[in-house]
Amino acid sequence: MFLAVCGLLGILFAQKNPDATSGSDSDVRDSLKQFADVYNVIEQNYAEPVNPDKAIYNGAIPGMLHVLDPHSNFFDPKAYSLLREDQRGKYYGVGMTVGPRNNKVIVIAPFAGTPAYKAGIHPGDIIMAIDGKPTDNMTTSDVADLLKGPKGTTVHITMLREGADKPLDFAVVRDEIPRYSVDLHFMIKPGIGYMHVSGFNETTEHEVADALDEMGDLKGLILDLRQNPGGLLNEGVGVADKFLHKGQLIVSHHGRSSPEKRYTAAHGNAGKDYPLVVLVNRGTASAAEIVAGAIQDHDRGLIVGETTFGKGLVQTVYPLSENTGLALTTAHYYTPSGRLIQRDYSNVSLYDYYFDRPNDNDISNREVKLTDSGRTVYGGGGIKPDVKIDAPKDNKFQDTLLQHYAFFNFAKHYVVTHHPTEKFEVDDAVMQEFRKSLAEDKTPYTEAELVQNNDWIRNSIKSEIFVDAFGQEKGLQVKAEGDPEVTKALELLPQAQKLAENAKKIVAERSSPSSLTR
Hints:
By secondary structure, the chain is of the alpha+beta class. The protein has 4 domains: 2-68, no CATH class; 90-178, Pdz3 Domain; 182-314 and 328-388, Alpha-Beta Complex (2-enoyl-CoA Hydratase, Chain A, domain 1), CATH 3.90.226; 396-481, no CATH class. 40% of the residues lie in helices and 21% in strands. It has 19 helices and 21 strands. It has helices spanning 2-6, 8-16, 25-45, 52-68, 77-88, 115-119, 140-147, 204-215, 233-241, 287-297, 350-355, 396-403, 406-418, 428-440, 447-452, 454-470, 472-481, 484-491, 493-511, and strands at 73-75, 90-93, 96-101, 104-110, 126-130, 133-134, 154-160, 168-173, 175-178, 182-189, 192-197, 220-224, 249-255, 258-264, 276-280, 302-305, 313-319, 325-334, 368-370, 376-378, 387-388. Strands 10-11-12-15-16-21 form a 6-stranded mixed β-sheet, with helices on both faces. Strands 1, 13, 14, 17 and 18 form a 5-stranded antiparallel β-sheet that branches. Helix 13 (406-418) packs across helix 16. The chain is globular and about 80 Å long.
């Protein structure tokens, strides 16, 4: 009831101005007075003391913004700090991922080259205390906050490690830790590169350029944008520039108080027109959709996977007082063909907007546009892939193994006792040890379930062991190599090449003198 009443400010404005056009100063003053009156009644009569920060930061301001659209948002000091951290692509801390396991907060993996890595902290180490404070009853977020701090300061971490007789104490000096948005790139086959981009921050364009340079003379590329929630518009433009021809339109946007702005490829791909497959899914949004949309509209590559999220709104972040910030929708963006891919959010709750997706195959009310070669594409509801692949869904047995941390627990013990090399493969002997591990941890299984899920289990074991023994990037590489969607993307590279060549031919024919009307 309390938070609903605190959302009254937005409701009052909506009632005063149902058509969302313009309002007089007196209307605004009246709405603010009504809000103040309501707040005074709550403050004086609510059953418990009222926290003003909670009422304003978590109630009134979000209530007002959510009346407008799902993406305008207010950031309290902590959230604003995290937003800026994500945008900058760096933070100050020890450099490791932590997470919950078996009711403890443990090290998932230290990042290569960071203070945690250099100090000898291992995946699977249980974090018992930080600067003498026991971590019992702490959340993962609490622990992560304690590990962060100013550059050059020391944090004392007490760990419990399998095979160690007593807790281990580490004195780790905090440093600048990069948040890499290109979290994985490697040659998945001779001449064929794979790159996963997890988001778009201030360093993404540079990271993509470096990764392409490292992979050298490519004969094909899988660009994986799955679960990429977007980020900075300019970085999305910069990444799309790497794959298009100089001068091609990447995206345009305009709003009520901002004139149209067009972004074109400033440099282009220097003629490197290798086959390109872009993997997307429902978690691909915002700047990631700008990249996918530009590549699709110019027939540069094949879009493969699920229909993307459908976010076509541009937010401008305004710094406010008290270290807070406001992300306000100021424009709509349009792909090169003129598509607005924003999904309908009218008369939909925030929960349903984010988690309950409409039928992707219903295109009856969607705007129709054409790619460079004349292929039909649709506005609204995200970017529909050229080749649809439904994401594999975990079955009940897979969920059981994950819920019991079966792979994590097995890998932690196996690495200590076997010291695997990078030539490690999951053979029948490893599978037999995995069975014993399941029995010891009282994780239920049947032989039929092991057979049915054989490939997934073997890839999961190998991936977790590589994370533990050789670092997170090696583990991610193993996971990508065994990913059925990545395998399908490799098979589709010839189709991607045919698409691009056909489009180039059609565009050339259209622009040739013989095809011009006289």
